[in-house]
Amino acid sequence: MKKQGSKSLIIEHFKKHIGEWVHNQKFREITGANDVPRTIRTLRQEGWQIETRGDGYHRLLDKEKLPPKGIRKAISRKERYLVFHNDSFRCMACGFGVNDGKKLTVDHIIPVEWGGLSEMSNYQTLCEECNAGKQAWVKSNPPDVMKQLLSLPTVDARIETLFDAFPNQEIPSNTIQLISKGSLDWQRAIRRIRQKTGKKILPVSRALGKSIYQYFKA
Ligand SMILES: [Zn+2]
Fold this sequence. Notes:
Layout: H1 2-16, E1 22-23, H2 24-31, H3 36-45, E2 50-52, E3 57-60, H4 77-86, E4 104-108, E5 123-127, H5 128-139, H6 143-150, H7 155-165, E6 170-172, H8 173-179, H9 186-197, E7 200-207, E8 210-216
Antiparallel strand pairs: 1-3, 2-3, 4-5, 6-8, 7-8
Helix pairs in contact: 1-3, 6-7, 7-9
Bound molecules: zinc ion.
C-alpha cells in the first residue's frame, strides 16, 4: 500500500507546517514517490484544504479535513421547493415556519459525513436555527464510527453497536431514531437487545418529548 503510505506521510508533514509553502521536491524526499502532485490532488478531493501554486509549492490551510467533495450534491430549486412543500413549509424539528419568521433550509436527515445520500428520501425541512443545532450535534460524533454503524443491515445491530461505541455516555433518542433510519421499532429494539445480551441499556431521563438512554457498562 505505497499510495496510502505517501498520503499519510504528506499529511503528517503538512500538519507540522500549517500554512507554510512546501515544494514537491520536499515531498518526494519524504515519500520516495514521484507522483506528488497527483497524491496532493487526491488529498484535496478527500477534503484537505490544500492550496497549490504554479511553481510546485503547496500549503495546508487547516489541520481539519472538510467533508469529502463530490458526495454532497447541490440541491436544485425544484427539489428545495418539493422538500418544503412535502413538509408543509415548516421546520420538522421545532414546527415553526415562514409565517413565524423562520428561514427554512434543506437538511440531510442522515448527514453526508455519515454516508447519507443527496436524494429526496434523505431531505427534510429545518429552520436555520434547528439546522445549526443539528450541525453542531453531528460534528460532536466521530464520522467514521457513525458511517460504519449506519452501514449495518438491521436496526438491532445498529442500535447495539451505537451503545457499544459510547458506553456510559448519555445518548439522546434523536440519535437512536436517526440510526434507526425511520424505523418506529427502536424502543422495542432496545428491549430486544437488553433481553438477548443482558446489556443494561436504560432510559436515564425524559424531557420535552426527548428521552435519553445510557448503556451502563461495568
Ligand atoms: Zn426549527
